[in-house]
Amino acid sequence: MSPTIRACLWMIGAIVSFTSMAIAGRAVSLDLDTFEIMMYRSLIGVVIVVTIASIAGTMHQIRTQRLGLHFVRNVSHFAGQNLWFYSITVIPLAQVFALEFTSPLWVMLMAPFVLGERLTRTQAIAAMIGFIGILVVTRPSPETFHVGLITAALAAIGFAGSAVFTRKLTRTESITCILFYLTAMQVVLGLSFAGFDGDIALPTAANLPWVVVIAIAGLVAHFCLTTALSLAPATIVMPIDFARLPVIAIVGMLLYAEPLDPFVLLGAALIFGANYYNIWSSTRSR
Fold first, then answer.
1. CB count, 10 Å around CB of 198?
2. How is the chain split among helix, strand and coil, in percent rounded to 5?
3. pTM to 2 decimal places
4. Which range of residues forms the domain containing residue 67?
5. Quick check: helix, strand or coil at residue 117?
6. Which of 44, 173, 190, 242 could, after both became Cys, cross-link 215 (CB 3.0–4.6 A)?
């Protein structure tokens, strides 16, 4: 099996995990703010990472040589994730995910400068087709403007920065090392921002299971994403994530009575076509 196909399979795991995190994030949003969600998620994540690494005997892989790069990667992700948690509470899930999918476009712009990866003609065409699909889904206009659209778009830039720096880290660092600093550094960031006002809310018995789901889903999603990025370039891996759009549109319709707009289906068809074209072309060339 080619590395590109294996990366695609890992991305399916990431898609399921991110969708689960969106559902859980909405469930706890009335009781916890985004910084508190990130803090508790990261605390649980540290325990999981250390436990699994101890059992697997990979604790020795946690190194301190590239702390600066880890910090830049995690600040980018922390900002993007907080903006994302806010966005899913104020605008329809399909819109959040659609705007989030501008992330591969930012990845393609960043990758040549950060990673030294060449942007091919095929990838550029696939990105443009995918972007057209996003415009079809969101159909932005002054009448439909909401601040959630801006925060979702900014979240996409944060995730793009996280992706390219993760790809850079995978060249020298193990997945255990990356996931450990992902959780540990974001505990500090979450605690700093959540405690800024001197009031940190504790999870209740009702929302604690949802917090655990967020922590596990987030960790699994990043494990899948990091593994995929270690197998294939960022400009190939990230557009696969477009498949989350039709999935979350159906979830929004079934769980939150969000209308399943036919334009979402049309946009999703364009996005799927772009993904298929990109993956097929890459596999054929390999």
1. 5
2. 80, 0, 20
3. 0.81
4. 3-285
5. coil
6. 44
